């Protein structure tokens, strides 16, 4: 598996991604491309147009050409790779596909996007059916949209656009959740993720169920579980939100938070506090030190739905990051 596939899916509906244009979706809607859930398939399930597919499927072409779908990224950023997943499409997948990128401000309509000058990210490349087709991307610039072109027609279950979010600092408040994946925060280490990946804690919105969080296996020793987060920007943390929603018989008993200026040496942000099951906990933080990383320790194990760390970023940091990956101010 390519290393980029462990990065967040910037196109995911869970981050606000959406399909804004598709040439054709006769057999199955293009909106399926950005669903966060893995595709599913029920054999011999037919509607009035044929077998039901959890993906985007166009009609059979009888003339030269291709089909396209344009996706607005939920988190604009630098794309490190794409996954064109043809799961369950066997005799009806596209033999080739290409990916292009676009960076625009505001909220362009489909006509504007169709007329725009796109940047090639993945050239026309062969696909395998019923497979994850992974392609690395090397362009270091920030993109807001991607265009999937399939040759000549067929079905794609999911389009994953893996990368690092680069938010526009002009669109952020002075104090925000610097642990949010949508703004560029990321997991850098974890002791255990047997039941759920810690990246779920950094997702937007409330957890929908127990599987939509970080959960460790049961410890049978005297140690504890932990996770480290690289913040979206160096910041002074003012408020921490430790949310155990949905974790009832498996919430941690206690937790601590520590900060770091380099991800190695740690200082206390929140001393050991008791946690309640199925409860959002909010704690003021008054340490007055800037952190680039935060470490959450839970005692001894269990599940956390969300981790929010509200803070004020260091002046100029986000602006510098934005300029590095764009041609803007």
UniProtKB/TrEMBL annotation:
Catalysis: reaction(s): allantoate + H2O = (S)-ureidoglycolate + urea
Cited InterPro entries: Allantoicase, Allantoicase_dom, Galactose-bd-like_sf
Enzyme Commission code(s) on record: 3.5.3.4
Recorded GO MF terms: allantoicase activity
A family per Pfam: Allantoicase
Protein's pathway: Nitrogen metabolism; (S)-allantoin degradation; (S)-ureidoglycolate from allantoate (aminidohydrolase route): step 1/1
Coiled coil, from the record: none
Name this polypeptide is given: Probable allantoicase
Organism whose genome encodes this protein: Paractinoplanes aksuensis
Organism lineage string: Bacteria, Bacillati, Actinomycetota, Actinomycetes, Micromonosporales
């Amino acid at each position: 598996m390519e290393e980029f596939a462990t990065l967040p899916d910037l196109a995911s509906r869970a981050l606000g991604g959406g399909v804004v244009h598709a040439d054709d979706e006769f057999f199955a809607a293009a909106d399926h491309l950005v669903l966060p859930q893995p595709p599913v398939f029920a054999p011999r399930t037919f509607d009035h147009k044929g077998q039901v597919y959890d993906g985007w499927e166009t009609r059979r072409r009888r003339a030269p050409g291709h089909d396209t779908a344009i996706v607005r990224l939920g988190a604009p950023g630098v794309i490190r790779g794409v996954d064109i997943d043809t799961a369950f499409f066997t005799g009806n997948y596209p033999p080739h596909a290409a990916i292009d990128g676009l960076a625009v401000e505001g909220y362009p309509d489909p006509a504007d996007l169709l007329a725009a000058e796109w940047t090639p990210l993945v050239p026309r490349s062969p696909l395998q059916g019923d497979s994850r087709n992974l392609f690395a991307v090397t362009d270091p610039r920030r993109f807001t949209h991607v265009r999937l072109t399939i040759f000549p027609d067929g079905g794609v279950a999911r389009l994953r656009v893996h990368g690092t979010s680069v938010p526009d600092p002009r669109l952020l408040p002075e104090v925000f959740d610097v642990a949010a994946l949508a703004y560029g925060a990321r997991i850098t280490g974890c002791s255990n993720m047997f039941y759920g990946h810690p990246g779920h804690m950094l997702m937007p919105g409330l957890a929908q169920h127990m599987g939509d969080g970080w959960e460790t296996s049961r410890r049978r020793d005297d140690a504890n579980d932990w996770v480290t987060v690289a913040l979206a920007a160096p910041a002074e943390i003012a408020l921490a939100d430790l949310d155990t929603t949905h974790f009832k018989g498996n919430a941690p008993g206690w937790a601590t938070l520590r900060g770091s200026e380099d991800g190695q040496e740690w200082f206390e942000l929140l001393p050991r506090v008791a946690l309640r099951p199925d409860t959002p906990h909010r704690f003021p933080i008054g340490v007055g030190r800037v952190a680039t990383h935060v470490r959450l320790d839970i005692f001894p194990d269990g599940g956390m739905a969300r981790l929010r760390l509200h803070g004020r970023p260091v002046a100029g940091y986000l602006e510098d990051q934005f300029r590095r990956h764009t041609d803007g101010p």
